Every structure is written in C-alpha cells, then in structure tokens.
# Entry
Amino acid sequence: MSGGKGGSAKGSGGRGGLHVRVKTAKKRSVSSTRWLQRQLNDPYVRRAQAEGYRSRAAYKLIEIDEKFGLLKKARAVVDLGITPGGWSQVVRKANPRARVAGIDLLACEPIEGVEILEMDFMDDAAPDALIEALGSAPDLVISDMAANTVGHPQTDHLRTIGLAETAADFAVRNLLPGGAFVAKVFAGGADRELLTLLKRHFSTVKHAKPPASRKGSPELYVIAQGFKGQHKDREAEAE
# Structure
C-alpha cells in the first residue's frame, strides 16, 4: 500500500542527491552531529517532508501494507503509540472511510478523522477509553510503540517486547474476527511468548523488516492476520 499508491518506498527511497556533511558545532555533541547528518542524508526523511508525512516511520507501514494488504479492508483501526502521527496519516490516506483512534503518552497534533487520546496505554483505563473513542471493536490494531532506550541492547529489547505483548493482549481481547495486528519488536529471541500467543489466536503470523527500517536497527515487525475470535479462556474470564 502507499496511501494512494505513491509508489514503493523501496524504489523512490534511493540514495540519490548530494551527501550533506554537518560541521560539529561547539554546543553540539558528536552523537548529535551524527544524528543530524543521518537525518539530512536520509531519503525517507526527505520523502516524508515532500509528501506531508510527519515522520519517516510512515513508510514502514506503507511497505508493510504493500506486502500484507492490511489497510484497504480495515474499517476501525487502533494506533498504539500514535505520536507523531505518521501511521495514522497512512491509514487515513489509504482508506479515508476508516475510523481511527490512537493513544500516546506524548502529545500528538490533530489528524483529520482520528480520535487521539493523550494517556499512557499501560493505564488500566486505556483499553476501554480506546474502544469508546473508536466507537466499536477494531478490525486492525497497529503498534509502533518502543520503550525509551537505555543503551543496553538486551534491556531495550525486553522492554519493547513487553509493550508488544501488552499490545497483543489488547488485540486478542478486542479485535473482530478476521482482524489483524501489527507491532514493533526487536530482534533478540525473547519474543517466544508473544509468538505463541499470536499463533494461537491468528491464522498467520510473520516477521518483516521493511526497507524503511534502518539497516543498523534491530527492529522488526510482527504481522498477525486472520484473528480467530476470542479464546475460550478469555470468554470465560469475561463472564
């Protein structure tokens, strides 16, 4: 998918153009200079600016959708970790009829057709608030949530997997039959419980690393499709 089929980011996200070098300023650290240089030379950053997306992350969802076909048939979408809003922009562009509700601890600028909750998804009240904002059960749950990194790869991985597991639990409790779930995970082998949960509740579960995901990044995305409906133990719990 490409939010109106603007072409695959794989093809137009090439390394064309001049390479920009950034001089180290007195008040700027070496790491900050490296980050700025990477941003200035990132074709996805330039493309996002040109096409009106709030972040380069929009192209990750675009590329995932091109491969898995998630957005055109979605009618009610929950966006977990919505800020700055790039993924919801992609959903709305691909499917203007879709209702979208998003949540983030950080503020997010308004997006037409999207209900935005500024609250912690880990708050016990968050799931019900999302369903109320959406107006129905979702048929697609997307999550680009990642824990703030501490610089220790194993710790960062475990914290992000914890968020993905919470997102998956929300999806299993709330998705309509046939629905789908997408979430960020980190490579590292600690997502066994997450995959076990998803394989029990969905017809297909796959990993993908979209081209827009930086080569040096450990992030992957898990895509689960064909939700089978609530598991019997969930139904018993609800009674």
Q: What stands out?
A: Residues 1-18, 231-239 have pLDDT under 50 and may be disordered. Residues 158 and 180 are 23 Å apart (CA to CA).
